C-alpha cells in the first residue's frame, strides 16, 4: 500500500469508530453501537468486503485509545502471520454471521451444514461447533435475533459541545452588484443547549463556504466531540475527514432521506423562515448577515427554548468548564494536502505553480500542506515529520545557473557572484 492508500484506510477506520471514542458511552451503549455498525454495509477502501466484524471494531477502538488518540495507530500494518493460513479467516466469520442473521432460528449444527452446502467454508478448513458457538456469542448472535425492530428514540446530548448539527438552508435572493443571487444559510447548532456556534448566509453552499463557517464556529464556541452532517458529496470529501480526524471530532453522516439525526437544526431553520425572514428589510448579503447576527444574539439566544425551558446561552454556559477551546494552530488543521513526487530538477507543481524542494528529496514522494489563500507557503511533510517550506521557483535566478556538460556526481551551481548576491 502507498502512504496515501494507508491514510485513506486510517481515515475510514476513524470514521467507523469516531462516535465510539469521542462520546462517553456506558458498556451497554458501546456494545449496541458496535453491534449496529457490524450489521451495516460499508464501502471499505481497497477491499471488496462490505462488513466489519464486532471484534475488528473493538480492536480499532483499543488501538486508537492506547496510542493516545493518534490517527497513525489506525494505519494498516502487515499481518504478523503472513504466509501462514489462519484457522478461521475473517471472510468465513462474516459469512457465518450473515447466514445466522438470515436463518436466526436454525440450530448451529444445521447452520454449519448449510455453510458447507453453500461452499462458504475454505476447502480443508472446516469450522468446528465450538468455534461457531464462540464466534456467534462474540457477535451477540447466540440467541434468536430474527424480527428485531429498530429502537429509535428521541435524544439530547448531556453536555454542551457533545454534539453539533449542521445543515444548509436555501435563503432569499440578495443584491450582488447589479444582479440578485440566492443566499444560503449555513448554520451549526449545539444539540444540548440549542445555541448557534455560528450561522451565516453565503452565496454558495459548497464546501469552501461551509468550511469558512465551520472555522468561525470552532473559534467562537470551541471543539465539538461529534458533528452530524448530511450525506452530500461536499461532506464526504477527504479534506473534511482529515480536518475532523486531526481535531478529534467524530464526523457522522445521516443516511439519505433520514434526517432524524439533524432534526433540531431543521427546526431552527423553520424558526428562521417564520420569525426572522418576514421581518428582514435589507437587500445585500451584508445586510442580511448583520440582521441575522443581531436577531440570534438579542432574541434567539436570550429566549427560553420550548424544549429545554432555558435560554440557549444560559444552558450552554452552565457547563462552560467542559468546553474544549480551539487550538492556537487551528488554521493549520484546515490546510489542504496534496502528494507530489519530486522531479529530477528538484521541482514539484501545485495548481500550476512551481516549487523547489531540497536536493535530498529528489525522487521522494512528499505530503504538501498549504492554504489556498497562502499558495506560496507550502509545508513539506515526509514520513510524518515536517521539513520546512518549499521555495517558489524563481526563473530569473535559475537563468543565472551555469550548466556545464554534466559530470557524474557534479550538480549545477550558481556563479560565485550570484551566490554572494543571494
Q: What are the defining features of this structure?
A:
422 residues; alpha+beta; Nucleotidyltransferase, domain 5; OB fold (Dihydrolipoamide Acetyltransferase, E2P); 4-stranded antiparallel beta sheet
How would you sum up this structure in a few lines?
The protein is of the alpha+beta class and 422 residues long. Helices cover 36% and strands 19% of the residues.
Notes on the protein architecture:
With 422 residues, this protein is an alpha+beta fold. The protein folds into three domains: 3-138, no CATH class; 163-322, Nucleotidyltransferase, domain 5 (2-Layer Sandwich); 335-398, OB fold (Dihydrolipoamide Acetyltransferase, E2P). It has 14 helices and 14 strands. It has helices at residues 3-21, 27-38, 54-66, 90-102, 108-117, 129-138, 207-221, 238-247, 263-276, 285-300, 312-317, 330-333, 395-398, 416-421, and strands at 163-176, 179-190, 198-202, 226-229, 250-253, 336-341, 347-350, 353-356, 365-371, 374-382, 385-389, 391-392, 401-402, 413-414. The strands form four sheets. A five-stranded mixed beta sheet has the order 3-2-1-4-5, sandwiched between helices. A four-stranded antiparallel beta sheet has the order 6-9-10-11, with no helix packed on it. Strand 7 (347-350) and strand 8 form a beta hairpin. Helix 1 packs across helix 3 (54-66), helix 1 packs across helix 8 (238-247) and helix 4 packs across helix 5. The longest helix is centred in the first third of the chain and has 19 residues, at 3-21. The radius of gyration is 27 Å and the shape is globular. It starts with a helix and ends with a helix. 23% of the residues are buried.
